[in-house]
Amino acid sequence: MAALSAKKVWQNTGIAWLLALAIVAGVFLHAGVVPFGPHSLLMSDMGTQYIPLLTAMQHALKYQVFHLYSFSQSLGSVVVPTVAYYLLSPFNLIVVFFSAAQVPVAASLIVMTKIATIAATMTWYLQHHFRTPQRLTVTFALAFSFCGFVAVNYFDFMWLDSLIILPLVAGGIDRLVREQRPGMFFGWLLASIVTNYYLGYMTCLFAALYFVYVLVNWSAIRDVITRPADWYGRLSQFVLTAMFSGLSAAVILIPTGIGMLQTAKSATSAINWRPVPEFGLEIFSQFGVGATTYSQRLWHAPTVFVSSVVVVLVLTYFVHPRITKQRKWSAAGLLLALFLAMWVRTFNTIWHMMQAPAGFPFRNVFFLSFIMVELAFAAWQAEPRQIKRYWQWGLPAIQALSVVVGALFIKGMLKLVQGYSARLATYYRHIQTIHWTSVGLSVLSIGLAAVVIFATQKIWRKGLISLLVITEVGGNFMLAMRGSAFGHAQAYAVAYQAENRQMGQVNDPDGQLYRVQNDNTLINRAYTGHYNNYNDSLLFNFHGVAAYSSTLNEQTRQTLQKLGLFSDNVRRIGATGLTPLSELLLGVKDSVHLTGSQSVTTPSASYSGMGFAVSPALAAVQLSSDALRNQEALMQALRPQKQAYLAQAKLVSDHVKHVGVIHGVKTTYPEHHVLTMRATATGPVYFWAVNGGTKYATMQVNGRSIKPATNSNGQAVLLKLGDFKRGQLLTCRFAATYAVALYKTQIMSLRQSDFTKLVQDVRQQKLTLRTQESRFQTKLTGHVQGSAQKSELFLSIPYDTGWQARVNGKRVTAQRLVNGLMGLPIQPGKNRIQLTYHVPGGRLGLGISLASLLGFAGLSWYWRKRRQPAAKHAK
After folding, report:
1. Which listed residue, 69, 166, 304, 380, has the most CB atoms within 10 A of its CB?
2. 684 assigned to some structural domain
3. Which pLDDT belongs to residue 872?
4. Confidence check: pLDDT of 2 > 60
5. CA-angle at 853, arms to 852 and 859, nearest 5°
6. Cα(59)–Cα(64) distance, integer angstroms
7. First CA to last CA distance, the chain
């Protein structure tokens, strides 16, 4: 096998990096994205999750505080799953060179450098896999680095690291099979798992398929494996190396796995395991440019785009006379396996870590793109002009026809499934936007690819192919950006600096632990779309209640939801629905409101520290789905009284008008209520619909709109209607799904005088917690007064087995209170509380990782010793 020139390899790799960087810079320049224009990537998950997380990371790096438990993720949670899922890419260190206000600029540069690095590693792979220093490897690498997956999901940049590492993992498998040297495969598979365990898991599945593919082809082509022992040796090396590589990541995987079991992802649905197809012929439309745009990011067919040049050459591969049948069959088998991994729902669920993706479907499609590029270059190496003449024009014609058929299929299916399948109707309605200009461009590109590959002189062919691929991938990226809800870069920087100064007054300046309800929406001015402020606590380094993350603790979310707070889905919990009682239970000290451009901080009247001594009766309270009933039960457990704390308002009248169509559009909220009630107690009045079904955006009370800041329509949320005196009338106007008889609406007044007595009683034995300074470990200390009647300490901290608690220096066992919060046993008199957090599974994971690294090192030494005599014998 010919030796490669290292100088030539690295030249091509560097050219690929620079060329890809230039292309993505050109696309960003065209779209006006920072640092080339006024727009920022404050959209979709980038704006709601990654920017806040990167900002929190920037803050941690700036102040060298790396706590593994954070009170800035809802009520608090271990951060290892979040860091493992979102932040372990080394490219994220770019934020160090930017201020917190300029993190969106850093995010753009991270995207650009990642895409450029995908091109570099793919160029390296193609040169080593095919043992060629051809400059055209750069062009094929660009087709992969700008494939459909990248063009549609580039702003979910945590996934891009897997595309960077994939060619290196494949190169490591090549080296294992060819030379029986597994070190490269071990290292890069470990890097893939560590940087993003989710796609790292997929890479492990792909590695098994690719190993079989390479082993079969290598033995057939080179005839180097002649004995069963040779097959067994390579197979055992692959299995053991993959196993040790995965186990070496245990320091991340075990704590992350324990943490993820606390999320809603631990639940499975039988519907996700049905062996039914996930898509139809619409997949063929995805081989053309501009097939999927930003507006279709949550619903689309597999984004298999890799340029028309690559597709024509892949088809050429299977009719080429110089390529053996065994190679064709093995390639077809690999492509089929990767296709079935997306097409059959059962396999698709397995590939997505046993869960159906919530938006951004077919996240494993880039593996198919990778193999297509590899086969396309193999066909190029074999000289595509050697196929028969009718194939040279027949294959592009088939490809062009399939793109048109795919587009027409979507239109036909949309009409066919209406009234028969709501799920399919929703799917095809989301992907129905057929850009016929894009279809025409796709057909033109396929025709040009055929002409360049089969009908141009050799001297021009490479240059024209490169020009065509660069034009296609750049054009597809631009078209995929259509409809993007870019944010405003300068507005973000100005708003961030102002709001950060405002929130700096309430982010625990004295080391005291408490929570803040933030209604300051100054930062929202930088967003084009609606921004719900879920992760502002990460942006501005304070402790809040809301959160939006794939790693949100489900027990915490359910606890807050049962207290009446709004939760749109299992990844989000908002602060809409807070009441004086929930502020008391959650340790909310201040509320920050925006007035004009100034923030106003209002102390919470019920704040009583981060916990307080309670009667054992609180442990007996079991929360149901009725928030008002739950609040009454909790208040009675805290301070029992004969009279209920919540008084049902008296119905005076309910006029309902059925309005089925509004402005020519059928409405899902046809029952328009004018509900008149009389308050039966003095205090705040709350509206609760047990089964949701309310359009809160239409809610008016005595002529005043009380629309929630977060769109809560159709969900169950405890909504404050205002403060009223006993006997005062209130008239509610709102649209709903049902008439009131079926609606089960509750409108209740909180007896303010009784609740004030409850707060006064609780404050006599409140707990004030302080954080101890530490760079890595979360430590809390405080004092509380216990009594014979109140022998339990309620803590406004989620129950977590990672907390080690000491009361007066003695280890105690925590218990679960109020569904998902924590309680500790205390003694009469003064109690000194110490809480220290240890990441569950952290020590076990570290031990397994170290043992696995040592185990692989020893195994590698053994394999190397065995290989040396064999090499001498071969000479």
Report:
1. 166
2. yes
3. 54
4. no
5. 85
6. 8
7. 15
Residue 523 pLDDT greater than 90, yes or no: yes
Alpha helices in 249-383 (DSSP H): 250-260, 308-317, 325-343, 345-351, 365-381
What token pair was written down for 38?
A: 């006024």
Dist. CA 487–CA 496, nearest whole Å: 13
C-beta pairs of 844-849 under 8 Å, 24+ apart in sequence: 844/250, 844/254, 845/250, 845/251, 845/252, 845/253, 845/254, 845/255, 846/250, 846/251, 848/247, 848/250, 848/251, 848/254, 849/247, 849/248, 849/249, 849/250, 849/251
pLDDT at 873: 53
DSSP 8-class letter at 44? H
Domain match, 653 and 744 both = yes
Backbone angles phi, psi at 386, to 5 degrees: -80, -10
Together in a domain, 521 and 582: yes
CA distance 314 to 332: 10
512 lies in the same domain as 611: yes
Sheet of 515-519: strand order equals 515-519, 588-595, 598-603
Q: Is 814 helix (H, G, I), strand (E, B) or coil?
A: coil
Residue 536, in any domain of the structure: yes
Mapped onto helix, strand or coil, the DSSP state of residue 51 is helix
Structure tokens at 818: 């109020």
H/E stretch holding 148 reads: helix 148-153
- How far, in Å, CA of 496 to CA of 332, rounded? 53
- Distance (Å, whole) CA 832 – CA 811: 12
- Pick the residue with more confidence: 774 or 497? 497
Using DSSP bridges, classify how beta strands 515-519 and 588-595 pair: parallel, antiparallel or unpaired. Answer: parallel
Q: Is residue 367 part of a domain?
A: no
Instruction: Report helix, strand or coil for 657.
Output: strand
Which residue range forms the structural domain that includes residue 554? 507-615
Range from 1-10, 555-564, 685-694 that averages highest in pLDDT: 555-564
**pLDDT value of position 220:** 62
Beta strands in 18-164 (DSSP E): 39-40, 69-70, 77-78
Query: Do residues 534 and 504 touch, judged by C-beta distance below 8 A?
Result: no
CB atoms within 10 A of CB 320: 21
Question: At 737, is the pLDDT very low, low, confident or very high (cuts 50, 70, 90)?
Answer: confident
Do 373 and 140 form a contact (C-beta atoms < 8 A)?
yes
**pLDDT at residue 419 is higher than 90:** no
Residues 656 and 739 in one domain: yes
776, exposed or middle or buried, with CB in 10 Å at 0-12, 13-18, 19+?
A: exposed
Number of domains in the chain: 2
Interhelix angle 228-248/197-222, nearest 10 degrees: 170
pLDDT over 50 at 1, yes or no: no
Alpha helices in 344-457 (DSSP H): 345-351, 365-381, 389-417, 422-430, 436-455
Q: Look up residue 524 and give its two tokens.
A: 């929202």
Considering the domain architecture, whether residues 669 and 586 belong to the same structural domain is answered as: no
Same domain, 666 and 730: yes
Do 587 and 654 fall into the same domain? Answer: no
| SS3 assignment, position 147 | coil
Widest CA span in the chain? 102
CB atoms within 10 A of CB 526: 21
In this structure, what token pair is assigned to residue 244? Answer: 């040790």
For the chain, what percent of residues have pLDDT higher than 90? Answer: 78
Q: 541's torsion region: left (phi>0), alpha (psi -120 to 50) or beta?
A: left
653: domain CATH number?
2.60.40
> Is it the case that residue 786 has pLDDT exceeding 80?
yes
- Residues 231-249: tens digit of each pLDDT: 788 999 999 999 999 999 9
Asked whether residue 732 is assigned to any structural domain, the reply reads: yes
Q: Which two tokens stand for residue 563?
A: 């207290």
Q: With contact defined as beta carbons under 8 Å apart, do 47 and 56 qualify? A: no
Domain co-membership, 603 together with 536: yes
